[in-house]
Amino acid sequence: xxxxxxxxxxxxxxxxxxxxxxxxxxxxxxxxxxxxxxxxxxxxxxxxxxxxxxxxxxxxxxxxxxxxxxxxxxxxxxxxxxxxxxxxxxxxxxxxxxxxxxxxxxxxxxxxxxxxxxxxxxxxxxxxxxxxxxxxxxxxxxxxxxxxxxxxxxxxxxxxxxxxxxxxxxxxxxxxxxx
Amino acid sequence: xxxxxxxxxxxxxxxxxxxxxxxxxxxxxxxxxxxxxxxxxxxxxxxxxxxxxxxxxxxxxxxxxxxxxxxxxxxxxxxxxxxxxxxxxxxxxxxxxxxxxxxxxxxxxxxxxxxxxxxxxxxxxxxxxxxxxxxxxxxxxxxxxxxxxxxxxxxxxxxxxxxxxxxxxxxxxxxxxxxxxxxxxxxxxxxxxxxxxxxxxxxxxxxxxxxxxxxxxxxxxxxxxxxxxxxxxxxxxxxxxxxxxxxxxxxxxxxxxxxxxxxxxxxxxxxxxxxxxxxxxxxxxxxxxxxxxxxxxxxxxxxxxxxxxxxxxxxxxxxxxxxxxxxxxxxxxxxxxxxxxxxxxxxxxxxxxxxxxxxxxxxxxxxxxxxxxxxxxxxxxxxxxxxxxxxxxxxxxxxxxxxxxxxxxxxxxxxxxxxxxxxxxxxxxxxxxxxxxxxxxxxxxxxxxxxxxxxxxxxxxxxxxxxxxxxxxxxxxxxxxxxxxxxxxxxxxxxxxxxxxxxxxxxxxxxxxxxxxxxxxxxxxxxxxxxxxxxxxxxxxxxxxxxxxxxxxxxxxxxxxxxxxxxxxxxxxxxxxxxxxxxxxxxxxxxxxxxxxxxxxxxxxxxxxxxxxxxxxxxxxxxxxxxxxxxxxxxxxxxxxxxxxxxxxxxxxxxxxxxxxxxxxxxxxxxxxxxxxxxxxxxxxxxxxxxxxxxxxxxxxxxxxxxxxxxxxxxxxxxxxxxxxxxxxxxxxxxxxxxxxxxxxxxxxxxxxxxxxxxxxxxxxxxxxxxxxxxxxxxxxx
Lengths: 179, 782
Ligand code: FES
Ligand code: FES
Fold this sequence. Notes:
The complex is a heterodimer. By secondary structure, chain A is an alpha+beta fold. Chain A has helices spanning about 1-15, 45-50, 105-115, 125-135, 145-150, 160-170; strands at about 25-30, 30-40, 70-75, 75-80, 90-95. Chain A has two domains: about 20-95, Roll (Ubiquitin-like (UB roll)), CATH 3.10.20; about 105-170, [2Fe-2S]-binding domain (DNA polymerase, domain 1, Orthogonal Bundle). Chain A contains six helices and five strands, in the order αββαβββαααα. In chain B, about 25% of the residues lie in helices and about 30% in strands. In chain B, the strands form seven sheets. Chain B has a seven-stranded mixed β-sheet with strand order 5-7-3-15-12-13-14, with helices on both faces. In chain B, strands 9-10-18-17-16-11 form a six-stranded mixed β-sheet. In chain B, strands 19, 27, 28, 29 and 30 form a five-stranded mixed β-sheet that branches. In chain B, strand 16 and strand 17 form a beta hairpin. Chain B is globular, with a radius of gyration of 28 Å. One FE2/S2 (inorganic) cluster (FES) sits at the interface of chains A and B.
């Protein structure tokens, strides 16, 4: 125990260990830089929902299984409950609040509304983020590809059929305009 | 003089729309609106208006209880029993209360009988709680609570609990304090022997022995169902704020008005000083109907700390201590004559709701198929496990699994098609039509004999019938306001737990006022508005849409009177057409909605209506609750593929044919039926709470080991909605949530039998269970 303690002190002194107190970090969220102080153990989901007030990102399991907390790091959809805020670094974070343009909703959001791919809506922001990420890399996903892309999401209300329907409709629309 | 309000005769649409409608004459209260025509002639009702809060939900703007943050808000954490059964010797909160950032600490475990020692009865039972400035400080403070437990012998397995020498969960004098998993009655009315409470005699009638003696064929089976947890994606959550005038609460609840009553009673406050709100709500499925100990805890901590307190369960707390669907063990025997006529039904059931009672497998076995001789005896088995509560289609979901497999087995013994047998013994023409439509869609006529596929992959088709009472909440009110600028609001404390009741309210009001649903501002989920119904028991739409329409109609009548007096015409001659008010047959006397509203004498007018009795009366009423004359139901057909080498069952297709009276928003109903089916598939194949019998701990209190159905496991679901008019209320609409869940597992089990020729009588039907049923690996209960 004492040895461990000494090793830890040495590591802190050498700059190898951060914390356990508050650390200053900068998060680039939805195109804007935010300075904040977080404990090393603070997850990205907690940082977004707490100090940044971006509560659209939901925490349902907090252990990386349900994908309710999905956000983008650069172009990658990740479970923000399983990423520490201090490890995000320079990467661009996009949350559900940053997905829509000024004027228009994102096509995935429009499609979710049109096909009623929503019930209680608690899992919905996460699903929208994963579906939008899928569409960005594959404008015409087929059923299998859609199901694979959302396979990590849990929706207790059972919106999967309407989510798939919404995404299939998007994939077959006339002009895929994702900007 | 009698003070019955005056009544008038009204002709209302009647029958199944796709078969042709008739009318029925009913005597209705004079202050109810005129008959509403069938959906085909309506502009808003029966159409797929987009969900009222869809935009907020897809943009992340929707505000759930977990998102509520108040100035100065503290965070609560709960210390839970590590023992499945223990006496609480002492508890010392002083170090925790003095810890940095902690503002309040509280013991929450209480003795069942006052003056007796505090006994803890399941792992995860709340013992104490603290409120601190951050969640981490609250969590840390729990470690400083000094608790002395005296562990006692315990039992978590219901079969073991039934043995005479099993450790007892309760003593007789404690029975009237036992929590109920749904039934209002006290457990104390039944005899207790060891851990077995009962029998509860449910609808027994006739002479069962004579009935079996008269039977040509008897089927006899033992069916078992597991404990399922609700798994709401939004955990149980509350923010409670005491202030000088009373108590404000934000809560993820299925019943704002009911929670207000419970809080007011518990804390001795007048109803007028307790406010309960919920905006967006992340699912309940029966587990968020009450104030709960967690609700009391948050409010007490807030009072103590003089600050708002937020309490949100972690997922493991959800799994261990937020309710569950009780297990069941059902011994079901059915006797029939050779033509299928039922002569006797005997159901002896045991069920465990943990430390709660009320684990009966519903009334479906005695209600679905009439039978003169019925014996239904139910026993509750207490175990040292977290209490059950209602869960989507409570009782009947477990009951249907046994009943509908037995009926299929009976059909096989009688060499009758399962649908044909049901048509003979089920007098409901609506059910018959559900089965006819479902059979057509699934291709029932192509169904083959059991185990027809020669290879290892075997396909099969099966069906089951669902039944649920058409519940109505009488204590339901709704207000409609019209402002002088023409804007309209609909207000009720009713909460939208994901069903889309807000959309439905907007559609009903828009229909009556000749407006678009998007023009109606929906204000719900707040007890400052007229009290709405709970969102449980599939009663919300049936309860709230008639008063919503009635209130809108009364506002319209008031506006008509204003215009009529200005125009010097009879108000009766006014109609709304294309967004304008005009004199019938005189398009020149016409005024836009906005202009008409501008003529109001005051800034706004309003009408509040209550839920009138169903026009043809109720089957049953008690307190605020009533049961309509009709039943809710549906038939579900499933096609499965069983891999007999791996034991994996894939559900390929489900056809779900359902009746909810007049459908108001077919697409939202389709969403809800899909949800019910998927929860049923998940129940049938995957979900099970597993308790360690050596420690009493739940082994899968997470989403990793507790398996929930995902998109890749979801079958194709075809939803067929009947349009069933009965002339029962101003909207003639009923609920859908529970019936959509009840038949699914049974339909899948019947399809599995058709695929492999072996009947699986236990849930969940995991690969291991399938291989055991096939005799390919040892073990199992078959
Ligand atoms: S909350 Fe992050 S995966 Fe469930
Ligand atoms: S919509 Fe409720 S959990 Fe997905």
